[in-house]
Amino acid sequence: MSDARLLLRDGLLFDGSGAPGVRASVLIDGGKIADPDTAAGVADCPVLDCSGLAIAPGFIDLHSHLDLQVLEDRTEKIRQGVTSEVVGNCGFSPFPFAGDPHELKEFASGILGRGEGWGWSTAAEYLRAVETHSTKSKVFPLVGHGSLRVAVAGHAQRPLSQAELDRLSGLLEDSLAAGCAGFSTGLMYAPGSGADTAELEHLCRIVARTGKLYATHMRSYAAGLTDAVREQLNLARATGCRLQISHLQAAGRAN
Ligand SMILES: [Zn+2]
């Protein structure tokens, strides 16, 4: 495959910069995209006629809950052009756990879509599983605030003690250092909903130091929407972390 050449001929080329599409041909050479300008005179290689079609870089699915399915090397997403998946959203990641994975499974099975056969005690272990089993797409895991909270305080839906917050911070730092792309919260779901703004600010400072992403499922998308947005914007301003508000919407006719 790596030596293979393939000419994508006469498509409408979108280069990913946001610029309008232009008609062009693209040569894939040795597994890499060659400069489109060099593709015009290419002969002697297989040609895919792309007239009437668009040529685009792979799509990044920035909000996926396929943390477990990416390990099955399935083809549904790659067939839709998704080449990168950001998993671990809304506070749910399949790691870490302390001791027994039972509580983590109880917390996250609903969103991860499977009750048994999963659970990694550290981000590093999950990333190793991705490396081994996920060959079709790039996987960028976030570490979930809910999963971290379950690891240090079980399902308790209350402010953390200083000792618990210290342990949670250590697990967050370890996860980011191991290679997680960022940190996610699910503030509508227990036990993450028990976090006050001070806890989130402390954790967002850790994210900011690493330059990674903070993604949040906010406290409300309905009557409390504007307060929820304000809390998140204030967190980003106070800490300097990169903020992504997940599935931003106003839910319910009244809102
Ligand atoms: Zn969500």
Polypeptide structure, described:
With 255 residues, this protein is α/β, with parallel strands linked by helices. It is built from six helices and eleven strands. It has helices at residues 102-112, 123-133, 145-153, 162-178, 197-210, 225-239, and strands at residues 5-13, 22-29, 32-33, 47-49, 54-55, 59-61, 82-87, 138-144, 182-186, 213-217, 242-245. The strands form two sheets. It has a six-stranded parallel sheet with strand order 6-7-8-9-10-11. Strands 1, 2, 3, 4 and 5 form a five-stranded mixed sheet that branches. Helix 1 runs antiparallel to helix 3 (145-153) and helix 3 crosses helix 4 (162-178). It is elongated, with a radius of gyration of 21 Å. The structure holds zinc ion. Zinc ion binds at residues 89-90, 186, 217, 246-247. Zinc ion binds next to loops.
State the secondary-structure class.
alpha/beta
Distance between the termini: 52 Å
Instruction: Give the helix level as a range of percent.
Output: 25-40%
Strand order of the largest sheet: 6-7-8-9-10-11
Q: Which key features would you list for this structure?
A:
binds zinc ion; alpha/beta; about 260 residues; about 20% strand
Please sum up the structure shown:
This protein has 6 helices and 11 strands.
Helix-strand layout with pairing:
Elements: E1 5-13, E2 22-29, E3 32-33, E4 47-49, E5 54-55, E6 59-61, E7 82-87, H1 102-112, H2 123-133, E8 138-144, H3 145-153, H4 162-178, E9 182-186, H5 197-210, E10 213-217, H6 225-239, E11 242-245
Parallel strand pairs: 1-4, 1-5, 6-7, 7-8, 8-9, 9-10, 10-11
Antiparallel strand pairs: 1-2, 2-3
The chain binds zinc ion.
